[in-house]
Write a structure and sequence with these properties.
alpha+beta; Herpes Virus-1; five-stranded mixed beta sheet; elongated; 29% strand; 4 domains; homodimer; BirA Bifunctional Protein, domain 2
């Protein structure tokens, strides 16, 4: 079994995750998160909420918007036109494949950035045939990954399931802005389900048809210089820049957070802020910082709305897996929704002191003009009506004539000073975006260890399904009763499980496999001298402590355990 | 403005909830939950998880399953055939209406339980015409409320969005059972999005097209007598039984939890357990117990899978609003999925001591039979092959002949005693089910007060968006700095907000409107004598305490504040 298969086997057996609708043979890309998986997942979500929302609660708020989205929204966002994958159908058995994956797998050529005609030619030229029946392929076409549906009883009311939560933040931006502090920066976070109708979902949690996203749409003034990078002080961020990739380099460069800005690795300092935040979060999932780096996407690899994108990558054995994406969406979304909806989605930026601007304006000499004949008036108005003050000024300088008379007789341009207290503009958007199930999978796979033929899931206590397991050594009345008492006492301060069935060895094995960092055992000696055994999941070392010291000892152990 | 309109206005203005996609004119039945609403909602979800899952963690686990569901599942569950509402279309303007609502609104007759032909006749007889254009109506037909979609690239792979999370628990029941303690009772909880394609969604959060459900599918042995009703001791549950309703009574009867069982108001004691749990949860949302009762559904009002249903109702002003449903689903779902999938979904129940059962079995006298000719052997085998031992015994008694020879020459039936250690059976299911947005709406509407022309949201501290607001009295450097210090100190123990913009009066008004129970103010006197003002949201009373006593005083105030 490969490492991945081993993780998937454990996940199934211990209630972490498994394919949905198994009794009906399963559906590709849909997974259930089991009892243990849901505990870990909920902790990952809360950790993200703490680090991305609560720790930034001066400027980040959380909202919830629907999955079902009317067509107009995805027309404006570009998803109807561009959220597609190239597919190709076998002429014989009618099986459908991702065309780019076929080319990559059978011709070892990257098809990223190629259009359908180019991929069709490649398939023909390389003689790629249906891997399932050997038949030949039709033409490559674009397949839209949005799940479609109909809203209400009228068949023309089309809707789609969102493939990202982002559009909910863009369409409600004005309402959130107005109902909160009415200041930039304003981060709008959302944790919610999304769906993508993948052609070939992968086994496991990495390419799913339905999953949970945690993302922030961070609206800011692109000229904002007041970015609290100091929060991440000397933190190191490893980046494989687009420049390095073009040189075929594979080794990321280490930057201090502030250096990302000073060395222009990011196009806006807020990109650095959120990348540093993501770095912190991922380290708390138990990933060593040597196994985290950001890979900048080349222009043709980026989504249509992005002017700079980094994928945060995790090294897991021989694999490199994307755990988050960091896109600079600029004003793409807000300006498109403003255009499509006809609503003003700009914000007003007040200058610290009003500025004086010189403005030219046109003054028509009405008294003089009204003395002229109708034709001249008409021709005059026609000539100047669509011109700017600057253009009229040029015509005057060139001594333009209307019906033989100088334009300057009827019109002049003057320059005046005006005070402006601020300006309207579309905020720009930085978007850090995580897939929850990816975080779950990566955390579990990263924590997977084998020790003397047994499996240990070395999860950090913060995301372990329980912090402490309580076991009576034997299924004997007094021991069970005492263990229950201790369990109830610990429950007020820890996330505790109780298990009294099966041999103690089996119970240790089970709690190691689901990643419980500490197991405490109540044995006959406890009844005599009030001491309790604490066993460490990773070292299997045991210590005995007095019951009175149990809570403090456990607190210290939990805080000090790195993973 | 009605009370409802006032709540909706406040919700929009203060970021609690508002219609989704407002900039595109909105879509009926879809709502965004805003920054303040999401804080309240997350607390309601966590409170539910505490009371329904964590407090029952010996037998309840939480899982997560997909929204997108293949057609087979809803065929087996009965939703494809029966999850419908009657609709009728205007022949002139083609507007579509809920047929039963039309009859109720314009003829004041309840259409519950009537079929489409009967409603069609009623509409004709009562001369009901299109309220929008006055046109006449076509025939009433059933409209399925499942949102449909297509999974993957093949158009025949139909899927639907789940209208309840329940089917995810039924289809994964065996996997959850096997990966956890393999014992009944086993409650499987889920908190997740569902969608129902309502014809006429209501304004606000009460009948939405997409919402979040929190529910438990509680699998148990219907003979289980070991139900921990003692947990709810003397708690009173008010019930309007079906019997009372049939007598046109409107006043619920008060039962102690144990009396629900002894007086046979519920068909299984676990129904009483979960109704008592729901009662506790709803009281913690701030609802007075005098405004909570359970209404039993009449047989024709129940969903197709239920053999007893109670709606938990909340009295809000003149309205009665359903906050949760309690259905006894029996083995309807597991047995149907077993049939449709061909999988064994029973559990094995071990008897405490093996029981002896008498079993008849058939013994064929092979020696004798083999001496007969082939035709007789063939006829003999044909005659008995599909018969039970009992049926063969009857034939022998009636001296049945095969080709002129007695059947009893070749076959006999004997009775033997066998030991059985247990039996296989389908667990029965009790389902308590809450809509999260309904809980949010009801909590907010219930907390809505007006005091001297101002609005106060008297939420219990447990579900308030923040517990404490920190305000510097003036926007003056020293005060702001001191207030920030106190804010950071309080942040470790409380859910705190900081606000330093606008007049202190406006800030008090804002924090009252979003339901923050306590506001503390740092004023010039603080700088002199280290005292701080604590203001109560509901009484507007203020007390001054020393900074050193602030944390303990606040802790006490928060714990003691009922609402």
């Amino acid at each position: 079994m490969s490492e991945t298969e081993k993780v998937i086997e454990l996940a199934k057996r211990r209630g972490i995750f498994w394919p949905s609708y198994e009794i009906y043979g399963g559906i590709g890309g849909l997974y259930d998160i089991g009892p243990i998986g849901t505990r870990i997942k909920n902790k990952i979500v809360n950790l993200w909420r703490q680090i991305f929302v609560e720790d930034n609660n001066e400027f980040v708020v959380e909202i919830e918007t629907p999955i079902i989205t009317p067509e107009k929204v995805f027309k404006a966002s570009g998803h109807i036109d561009r959220f597609t994958d190239p597919i190709v159908e076998c002429n014989k058995c009618h099986k459908v494949y991702r065309a780019d994956h076929l080319v990559e797998e059978f011709a070892h050529i990257s098809a990223e950035g190629l259009n359908t005609t180019e991929i069709t030619s490649l398939i023909r030229d390389k003689g790629i045939r249906c891997p399932s029946c050997g038949g030949d392929f039709g033409d490559v076409r674009e397949f839209n990954l949005l799940f479609g549906t109909t809203i209400g009883p009228y068949s023309d009311s089309k809707g789609y399931l969102r493939p990202e939560t982002a559009q909910g933040m863009f369409t409600s931006f004005k309402r959130v802005y107005d109902s909160s502090r009415q200041k930039l920066p304003l981060g709008i976070a959302q944790i919610g389900r999304v769906a993508r109708n993948e052609i070939s979902p992968r086994q496991g949690l990495l390419r799913m048809r339905e999953f949970t996203i945690m993302e922030v749409e961070f609206f800011m003034d692109p000229e904002d210089k007041d970015v609290p990078l100091w929060k991440y002080g000397e933190d190191i961020i490893r980046v494989l820049t687009a420049e390095l990739k073009q040189k075929k380099e594979e080794k990321p460069i280490s930057y201090k957070v502030s250096e990302l800005v000073s060395e222009k690795a990011v196009i806006n300092p807020w990109m650095a802020y959120w990348m540093a935040t993501a770095n912190k979060f991922v380290k708390e999932l138990g990933i060593s910082e040597n196994n985290i780096y950001f890979e900048e996407k080349l222009p043709h690899e980026r989504a249509h709305y992005s002017s700079q994108t980094f994928d945060q990558m995790i090294v897991l054995g021989n694999d490199k897996i994307e755990i988050s994406g960091h896109a600079y969406r600029g004003d793409y979304d807000l300006s498109n929704h403003a255009k499509s909806s006809g609503q003003d989605l700009t914000v007003f930026k007040k200058y610290s002191t009003p500025i004086t601007v010189k403005k030219k304006s046109v003054i028509i000499n009405k008294d003089k003009l009204n003395n002229e004949d109708k034709n001249l008036i008409k021709d005059f108005m026609k000539r100047i009506s669509n011109l700017s003050p600057e253009q009229i000024e040029t015509l005057i300088k060139m001594d333009e004539k209307i019906n033989g008379k100088s334009l300057s007789e009827f019109v002049s341009v003057v320059e005046r000073e005006e005070k402006e207290s601020g300006k309207k503009f579309y905020p720009h958007v930085v978007e850090p975006s995580f897939g929850v199930e990816r975080c779950l999978y990566i955390s579990v796979a990263n924590a997977y260890r084998e020790k003397k033929d047994r499996i240990v899931l070395s999860l950090p206590p913060k995301i372990a399904p329980y912090e402490v397991a309580v076991f009576p050594l034997l299924e004997r009345g007094e021991l069970v009763e005492r263990a229950r008492k201790i369990y109830l006492m610990l429950k007020t301060g820890f996330d505790v499980m109780f298990d009294d069935s099966g041999s103690i060895g089996k119970r240790y094995a089970r709690s190691d496999e689901i990643g419980v960092p500490f197991a405490i055992t109540i044995d006959p000696q406890t009844l005599q001298d009030d001491t309790i055994t604490i066993r460490d999941r990773d070292t299997w070392d045991q210590i005995r402590v007095k019951e009175g010291e149990l809570i403090n000892t456990l607190k210290e152990l939990v805080i000090n355990k790195k993973r």
